């Protein structure tokens, strides 16, 4: 008899066109250009073929704009979880004081709930940024989990690449000094854990031991050099996760579904020289492989399973020894 597969989770950070322009320091973001009407149908169609329900992290500013309502409601109607990705999508969120952090999370939560009918249970900071203030606010607002950490040593290198391909300088660069995390983040756990608060952290998984990224944008970047190498790398990462007992949390981005032929710009982003059809095939193939190794659930389900197991473990530790020895 075949044993049930271990669980894993899948999420998509619904960073919009304007948010990439804003973080990159490019003009025109203030008009909030959007590609959600292209990305969302493509993503939903692929996920439906895969019979997957995942977590979409939505930016509050997009939920506040009427032009995005139909796209966001399509996500909710398809049964996917919707998480909070902040209101303004500023990777310098960690610089906010608690009052501003409270407003940033609450405004996004209210806009998302109003449009989709779902109150977010989880949060992911833009650019993998977080802070003590963020965690306190999440606990106050009764969030179930945070998913903002990326345990890799390569964050500073990714940030350097990003800044070298931008026109940012001075104060703007200082605001982005923790974009994609720090070298110290490579020492963080890969498995879910509790902060000192009541918030469960579910890290974006990186390859066990090596701590190199395995999210889809990274795989697509590798595939531009060798499609076979990218899939072999992902295959090895999944095998290592199984061996190490890590239930991976895999990450998608909108640009995984968009290519040079969509003519949206953003050429500074790795992999944007590829065609959309090629990228969609690669994403589909990677998800096929993912589903061979793991039962894929939403982050909310992932968090609830981990919390239940944690509570059972605590209960076992509190039992008298005679019960433990039975």
Quick structural overview:
The protein is α/β, with parallel strands linked by helices. It has helices spanning 17-24, 36-50, 60-63, 69-77, 98-116, 132-140, 155-164, 171-175, 216-223, 227-244, 276-293, 299-318, 321-324; strands at residues 7-13, 55-58, 81-84, 122-123, 145-146, 193-194, 200-201, 249-252, 295-297.
Polypeptide structure, described:
The protein has 326 residues and is α/β, with parallel strands linked by helices. The chain has one domain: TIM Barrel (Alpha-Beta Barrel). The chain is 45% helix and 9% strand. It has 13 helices and 9 strands. The longest helix has 20 residues. The relative contact order is 0.16. The C terminus is likely disordered.
């Amino acid at each position: 008899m075949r044993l049930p597969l271990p669980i894993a989770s899948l999420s998509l950070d619904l960073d919009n066109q304007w948010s990439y322009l804003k973080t990159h320091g490019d003009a025109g973001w203030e008009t909030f250009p959007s590609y959600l009407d292209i990305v969302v149908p493509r993503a939903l169609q692929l996920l439906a073929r895969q019979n997957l329900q995942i977590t979409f992290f939505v930016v509050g500013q997009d939920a506040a704009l009427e032009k995005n309502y139909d796209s966001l409601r399509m996500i909710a109607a398809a049964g996917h979880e919707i998480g909070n990705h902040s209101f303004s999508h500023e990777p310098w969120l960690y610089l906010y004081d608690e009052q501003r952090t409270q407003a940033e999370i609450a405004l996004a939560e209210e806009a998302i709930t109003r449009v989709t009918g779902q109150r977010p249970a989880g949060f992911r900071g833009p650019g993998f940024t977080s802070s003590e203030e963020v965690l306190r606010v999440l606990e106050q607002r009764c969030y179930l989990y945070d998913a903002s950490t990326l345990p890799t040593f390569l964050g500073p290198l990714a940030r350097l690449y990003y800044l070298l391909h931008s026109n940012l300088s001075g104060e703007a660069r200082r605001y982005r000094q923790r974009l994609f995390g720090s070298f110290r983040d490579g020492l963080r756990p890969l498995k879910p854990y509790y902060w000192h608060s009541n918030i469960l952290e579910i890290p974006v998984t990186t390859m066990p031991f090596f701590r190199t990224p395995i999210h889809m944008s990274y795989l697509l970047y590798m595939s531009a050099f060798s499609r076979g190498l990218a899939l072999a790398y992902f295959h090895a990462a999944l095998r290592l996760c199984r061996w190490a007992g890590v239930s991976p949390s895999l990450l998608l981005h909108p640009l995984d579904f968009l290519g040079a032929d969509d003519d949206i710009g953003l050429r500074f982003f790795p992999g944007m020289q590829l065609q959309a059809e090629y990228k969609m095939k690669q994403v589909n193939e990677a998800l096929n492989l993912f589903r061979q190794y793991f039962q894929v659930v939403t982050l909310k389900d992932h968090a609830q399973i981990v919390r239940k197991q944690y509570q059972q473990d605590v209960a076992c530790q509190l039992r008298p020894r005679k019960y433990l020895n039975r």
